[in-house]
Design goal:
This protein is an all-alpha fold. It is built from 32 helices and no strands. The protein is elongated and about 115 Å long.
Length: about 550
């Protein structure tokens, strides 16, 4: 410490601000107690009183600085810590705290001296050398930073941390040859350590020397053919060289090695997603996920990933089996349960959807989507009361997901209709459309059920017309609109829309042909009407009313 500074602090301490040393100690310990009970404001005031009385009280300077740091006031902490280290230049804690304050306030140019002092006090602590070098790197004093690493190597000997730190500097300086030479030296000293080959190949590859990188990796592969990281690195090199077959071969080898993290493998598979629906990308992702289930046969994530890829490839049955296996290994991942039930619904496996959905809800009772999906299954099984219970749960559990709410209220409308509760059905449909006015299925169903009751036909016509705009060329929607126009006695318009429906109908719906006959009858084309009623009967429609239409050549409701 400079002599004039020692003299100043000594003189200040003699003055004591009117307090003797015992009073100052009492104040200090009172401040510590207030700090302990987190009364920081009062603690700060007491430490300030100590410093006013004894400007050289380094402990109070340090404690007050720490209180300021707690409040993120690093600028205010700095002068206090600078005074503390001036009083006690051999206190390592004070210097460390000052270094932290400089770093947090981005006062990097002052760090070199602080770390010099810390190294003086504790010359065997590697962290101080690394921190000093990092500060020099930030200041772009790269050669000085390298000298610090040389100093540290004299203490610790060569190690990977030093090697990696030097690499970063060499590459910042554009000294690729120097960076490579250091790693080649490490390889010469440790020819069996594959990590050095991987590091060297990365240096070459990231700096445009792909051929050199490939040569290094092939050398590593000869040393350790079972090293998955080498195969992954080779896959990257071959992919960059547009040799996709060789790249994929290396990936399959890496995926067959258990030591390569399953999470890393899953990231590679999901990397194929942006290339979907390209069939080659799908096939590659599917095969890699299959290998995953062999290599990691006891990991549920492998089978969940395989299930996802099977689903992407429209292999629903196999995907269902994969999801079941994933759940068998670990039933605590909700998303897998949901995927399984969704597949079962798409396969019309309603019993499976109910069984697996209710099992999922025993584990995850508050999952709104699962309640909805189980409700769908029960509705399709025509047990509308059970469906209502689950779908109501979905609407009570979810208030943010507008898609789910719209679908749920729409399904409630369907269920209430089938239970002959028209008021509740209409209320549910209105809620669904308030959330999503452009849900085409809701618009169609609501409109159709109103037409069956011969109620609010203008509203029904508007909704039905909108559904045909949202999903044009949908036969069932066009049939609904034609039927509503028929109910409104707009027979020419009804004929146009029913002919559209018949054109787009791939299933030869008997109902549509019967409706078409009804329309033709009111257009004065009785013979054509009878022909279409007969077609309806030929396509499976069986009803006394239809038979009467055919026999008497007249329309009957």
């Amino acid at each position: 410490m400079p002599l004039h500074l020692i003299a100043q602090t000594t003189a200040a301490s003699k003055q004591m601000g009117g307090l003797d040393s015992s009073e100052i100690r009492q104040l200090f310990f009172s401040a510590l107690r207030e700090k302990t009970v987190e009364n920081l404001k009062h603690a700060s005031e007491l430490f300030e009183r100590v410093i006013q009385a004894d400007p050289a009280n380094d402990a109070s300077l340090y404690e007050l600085a720490n209180l300021k740091k707690i409040q993120n006031d690093y600028t205010g902490a700095q002068p206090l810590l600078e005074r503390a280290v001036a009083v006690k230049p051999n206190n390592e804690w004070y210097w460390s705290a000052l270094a932290d304050s400089y770093e947090k306030s981005n006062n990097i140019n002052k760090l070199e001296n602080v770390f010099n002092q810390l190294i003086r006090l504790n010359p065997s602590k590697p962290e101080y050398y690394f921190d000093k070098a990092n500060a020099l790197v930030i200041l772009k004093r790269y050669d000085d930073a390298l000298k610090v690493y040389d100093q540290l190597e004299q203490i610790t000997g060569p190690n990977d941390d030093l090697l990696g730190s030097r690499q970063k500097i060499y590459l910042k300086q554009g000294k690729v040859d120097q960076a490579a030479a250091d790693v080649e030296k490490a390889i010469a000293n440790n020819p069996g350590q594959i990590r050095y080959y991987l590091l060297l190949s990365e240096i070459y590859n990231s700096n445009g020397f792909g051929d050199k990188a490939l040569k290094v990796l092939l050398q590593a592969e000869k040393i350790d053919q079972g090293n998955g990281m080498v195969h992954l690195a080779l896959a990257d090199i071959y992919r960059e060289k547009k040799n996709n077959d060789a790249s994929y071969k290396e990936l399959t080898q890496a995926f067959a090695i258990p030591e390569v993290s399953i999470d890393q493998k899953i990231r590679i598979i999901t990397g194929y997603y942006p290339k979907f629906p390209d069939p080659n990308a799908k096939a590659s992702a599917l095969e890699l996920s299959r290998i995953l289930t062999i290599t990691h046969a006891r990991d549920s994530k492998a089978f969940a990933m395989y299930g996802d890829m099977l689903l992407q490839s429209d292999k629903l049955k196999e995907g269902k089996d994969a999801y079941r296996k994933s759940i068998e290994l670990d039933g605590q991942v909700y998303q897998v349960h949901e995927q399984l039930v969704r597949i079962e619904l798409s396969m019309n496996d309603l019993d499976g959807a109910v069984k697996d959905g209710e099992n999922a809800l025993s584990l995850f009772p508050n999952q709104a989507w699962m309640n909805y999906l189980v409700g769908v299954a029960w509705a399709q099984k025509k047990d509308f009361n059970k469906a209502l219970g689950y779908v109501k749960n979905a609407t009570s559990l979810e208030i943010q997901d507008k898609e789910l709410l719209s679908l749920s209220f729409s399904l409630l409308g369907d269920c209430y209709h089938d239970l002959k509760n028209n008021k509740s059905s209409d209320d549910a449909y209105d809620k669904a459309l308030a959330i999503n006015p452009d849900n085409a299925y809701t618009l169609n169903n609501y409109a159709y059920y109103l037409s069956l009751r011969n109620e609010q036909l203008d509203k029904a016509a508007q909704m039905s017309a909108r559904s045909t705009q949202l999903q044009p060329n949908t036969a069932s929607f066009e049939d609904t609109y034609a039927w509503i126009l028929f109910m409104q006695k707009k027979y020419p318009d009804a004929k146009v829309w029913m002919e559209k429906a018949l054109t787009h109908d791939k299933d030869k719906s008997a109902v549509k042909y019967e409706h078409y006959g009804d329309i033709l009858f009111y257009l004065g084309k009785a013979d054509e009407a009878v022909d279409n009623w007969k077609k309806a009967k030929g396509y499976g429609e069986q009803s006394p009313v239809l038979d009467r239409k055919i026999n008497e050549k007249k329309y009957f409701e």
